[in-house]
Design a protein that fits this description.
Blueprint lengths: L4 H15 L7 H8 L3 H14 L2 E4 L6 E4 L8 H9 L8 E4 L7 E5 L2 E5 L2 H5 L6
Antiparallel strand pairs: 1-2, 3-4, 4-5
Helix pairs in contact: 1-3, 1-4, 2-3
C-alpha cells in the first residue's frame, strides 16, 4: 500500500509524540526529530489537532503539543483513513439564471449579487 506524504508524516508525528509520554513538545522539535520540514509539520499537526488526536496548547506558559488521549485509544487505521480520503469539493457559490435573458444571480453566503449582461461577458468579441 502506498501512503500519501501527509499520511506518512502523521504516523511519524503521532509515534514521536506518543514516545514523549506526557511531555509537551514543539513543532520544531518534531520536525527535526522526524526529518520533516517545519511547514509540513505544522500542517499535519494542525490537522491532527482538528481530528482530536493531538492536544495543541498555545501561550506564554505551557505551550506545545501532546497526545489528546492515551496512546492505546488512538486508532491508526482511522488516522490513515482520514488522511487518505479525498475531501468532497466545496462550491460555496451557486449560479443560476433566475430572470432569463442572461441575467445571472450568484448566491454566496446568503448574499445575492446580480450580474447583468452576462451573455456579453461570456461571448467572444464579434458575436451577437
Amino acid at each position: 500500500m502506498h501512503l500519501k506524504q501527509h499520511t506518512d508524516y502523521s504516523l511519524r508525528i503521532l509515534t514521536y509524540v506518543a514516545r514523549k509520554c506526557e511531555a509537551m513538545v514543539s513543532a520544531h522539535e518534531i520536525s527535526e526529530a522526524c526529518g520533516i520540514s517545519y511547514s509540513h509539520t505544522v500542517k499535519v499537526v494542525n490537522k491532527l489537532g482538528k481530528l482530536g488526536d493531538l492536544d495543541l496548547k498555545r501561550g506564554r506558559y505551557g505551550c506545545g503539543i501532546q497526545l489528546a488521549a492515551e496512546p492505546e485509544t488512538i486508532n491508526l487505521a482511522t488516522v490513515v483513513e482520514q488522511f487518505e480520503s479525498q475531501p468532497k469539493p466545496h462550491f460555496p457559490i451557486d449560479a443560476h439564471d433566475s430572470h432569463g435573458e442572461g441575467s445571472l444571480r450568484f448566491e454566496a453566503n446568503n448574499t445575492a449579487v446580480k450580474r447583468r449582461h452576462w451573455n456579453r461577458i461570456r461571448r467572444p468579441a464579434g458575436c451577437k
